């Protein structure tokens, strides 16, 4: 009979152990393990938008040459694509009227010089007679005045001769710098006006890629952006440059703005008039972007899960999406720099849930 108290004691101990184990299991079920997630820290980054335009190659410095006076075109030796040198004669006007005006001015100069010689001799005689007391002061002053008038007439006649020489020179049109002719104007025999384009010359000191850009893209800061330019028929032929000029006024027909890109050492294959494609990355300013996997919905609006690093608990927050694609989402409002957003595991979360960031200690 002494074994009964021992059995009772063993049974009581086993029951206490089983009860303690059940309580621990119940405690584990009441406090679930933190859910593993992946996160990212919100930062503002410069967003670049790739832009592509089709344009053409033009000379960096291209000028239209024209006569300063009007007249009948005697000759026009310009040919499209010809190379010209500085001082080379390009075209010529009939110069009969200008030569006649020159001869008339020269004759007037000779007559004025004769009057000056006569007035100077008379002045010298009056000066000598006045010194000897044989003439009056009034006669001497009249001789002085006559000499000055004659000298003024000679000066005016010389100016007329110089102007007539210039007019004759204006009947010849010469290149002011070496280059290539990219456009020609009227043919010989036509009557042209002063300032009418006779030829357009592309000077040999640089090449531009010229593009017509829509107005909505010109509003941004394009000046100085780096551009990659390729030939449309051979993408291997490429050059780099920077936007150096944006037109201040839109084209009245297309309503686009001309943008000129100064090319650095363009290859010889990029000839004038060649069609090219320009590629540039325009900045949209600093923006907040998060992976597309971070996006969820709350109250029928886009939302993200935000982690509180002090408690390792998450909360859901509505955000405004500016733009999104398969890889990332651009957030315009709702997030601040430095906040932590859950990027993986968002489907099984609930507000206030404790999480464990993968790669950190539990």
From TrEMBL:
The keyword Iron does not apply. Pfam families: Beta-barrel_RND_2, BSH_CzcB, RND-MFP_C. InterPro entries: Beta-barrel_RND_2, BSH_CzcB-like, MdtA-like_C, RND_pump_MFP. Residues 290-347 form the Multidrug resistance protein MdtA-like C-terminal permuted SH3 domain. Keywords: Signal. GO terms for cellular component: efflux pump complex. It comes from the Bacteria. Residues 1-26 form the signal peptide. NCBIfam families: RND_mfp. Belongs to the membrane fusion protein (MFP) (TC 8.A.1) family. This is Efflux RND transporter periplasmic adaptor subunit. It comes from Bradyrhizobium cajani.
